[in-house]
Amino acid sequence: QVQLVESGGGLVQPGGSLRLSCAASGRIFSSYSMAWYRQAPGKQREIVADISRDGRTSYRDSVKGRFTISRDNAKNTVYLQMNSLKPDDTAVYYCNAYAPYSTSYWGQGTQVTVSS
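-> structure tokens emitted (116 positions)
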């Protein structure tokens, strides 16, 4: 099994930046693709960004050019750098680990609030 611990959420003003971290333990980190999801109040959970085992990335259109997902396999950690934050980015952000034909794992979530 894999345990995921998220950190880095908080309150930030519009236009500000925040970096989320997700530390994994329990299994070999490099075996998993990683993703960040978010869920705003009254909305369904949506994928924000994804990074494959070999480092290929993808982003939802609304965050392209503002967010960057990265991973450090030596530290068993995935990051989400968020720049030019907007109020619509306000949500609980969740880390997800997955692999083909394997159970996926979720962190507990970290709150990101963008408000003036």
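The two ends are 40 Å apart (CA to CA).
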